[in-house]
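Milestone M4 deliverable, item 7.
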Amino acid sequence: MRSPRVLSVGQCSMDHGSISRFLQREFGAKVIAASDREEIEQHIQSAPCDLVLVNRILDGDGTTGLDLIREWTSSPDLAEIPIMLVSNYPDAQQSAESLGALPGFGKASLTAAATRAKLAAVLGPKE
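Output delivered:
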């Protein structure tokens, strides 16, 4: 069985590192960074993706994660791939879910049991 593949969009390098280490340790996931729409498209076209994690505000260009989620969930080609918002703000999480994202998590709660459960529902147990 292949390792889950996660696309991490718009995280700063420090946060991307924390998220990557956690997902590798807990789920055996391979985490790929993307900073803008062009990189997202390249990664999505190159290999299957099991989950997309979008920062509330993309570090590279300041695009809002909610705009990206809106586009993602309305695209027939992309809507099948689960997407979550990474944000500590409950109102942003609620907005993301109303746009069709799965319940996400904040960086402050990355290692919490509730976050692990949300991610396990998509990525499954580590093999």
